[in-house]
Amino acid sequence: MSATHLPIHVAPLRLARDRVTMTGTLPASRFSRFEQSVDRVEGDIRAELDFHLDEEQRICVSGVLLAEVALVCQRCLQAYVQPLRCELHLALVRNEAELQHLPRAYEAVLVEREPVVLVDLLEDDLILALPTVPHHEPDACKMPLALEGSGQKGAGDAPEEDRPNPFAVLRGLKD
User: Fold this and answer.
1) Most confidently predicted of 49-63, 87-101, 156-170
2) Do 47 and 31 form a contact (C-beta atoms < 8 A)?
3) Secondary structure class of 24 (helix, strand, coil)
């Protein structure tokens, strides 16, 4: 993708009628809710967006968003960089009635008037692309030694047969 900056405001109906494809970047600082959801965003958000009308003459936006974000691993609590790829299949609707007739293949975005702030169309999908529980790959995670192998026998655990049986007293009462 090129380093062209995408516009802040777009007119989706005009772009869809003209079947415009936009490729470029958006500054991460414009995605305030997305930035709050991660440790930090590495660079700009890269996007390839295709505006078109479907067979029912709905305004649609499909494409891909790419970003790299720093997240905190929930296993070892260390920061790591996670690439994100978010595929879009949006249909812009103007009211609830249009929403009722929208096929499930589309994600609805309510647009009451044009022009539209481009970030407003894209930010929710970026947030939803974040992992539910961020973590390194298993072999890359640097878990603290105290937590490593928890639930398993550690080096300091006594073998099963060397520990006193807490029910030994009951065995004596039974006899």
Assistant:
1) 49-63
2) no
3) strand
At which residue do the structure tokens 């390194």 appear?
136
Is the predicted pLDDT of residue 41 greater than 90, yes or no?
yes
The single-letter DSSP state of residue 147 is: T
According to DSSP, the residues that pair with 86 across neighbouring strands are: 65
- pLDDT of amino acid 171: 78
- Record the tokens describing residue 165, joined without a space: 């049986």
Q: How many CB atoms lie within 10 A of CB 154?
A: 11
Q: Residue length, the chain?
A: 175
What count of Cα atoms within 13 Å lies in the side-chain half-sphere of residue 97?
A: 0
Q: What is the DSSP letter of 125?
A: H
What pLDDT, in 10s, does the model give residues 139-161? 777 765 445 555 444 445 555 66
Strand partners, 130: none
